# Entry
Amino acid sequence: MSPETNGTNLSPVVCPRCGEIMRSAAVKTAIWRDDRLFVVEDIPAQVCDSCLEQFYDEETTDALRRLTEESFSSLKPKKEVLVPIFSLEGRIVRRTSSSKEAYSDY
# Structure
């Protein structure tokens, strides 16, 4: 396996969390604003396949912050998707001291 580079030099980027080599990738993230969910994709990042952390450079972080502060109102979305929402209500199994399972509605 060849080490990935960060695009600015030939040395590999090391994950600050676990120490493994990272790779450059375009990722997506979900951001909640009030009761609305926004998905941002095509985010340049360094990704660690070992611990699954994603790291953004300063310019990318600033762009995400500006987009969030503007409440996504100044841009037309690239696309829209229907997102199913699931609930764990009534599906959490709590173990009791008698080893019996009991379903719990929080």
Notes: The longest strand covers residues 36-47.
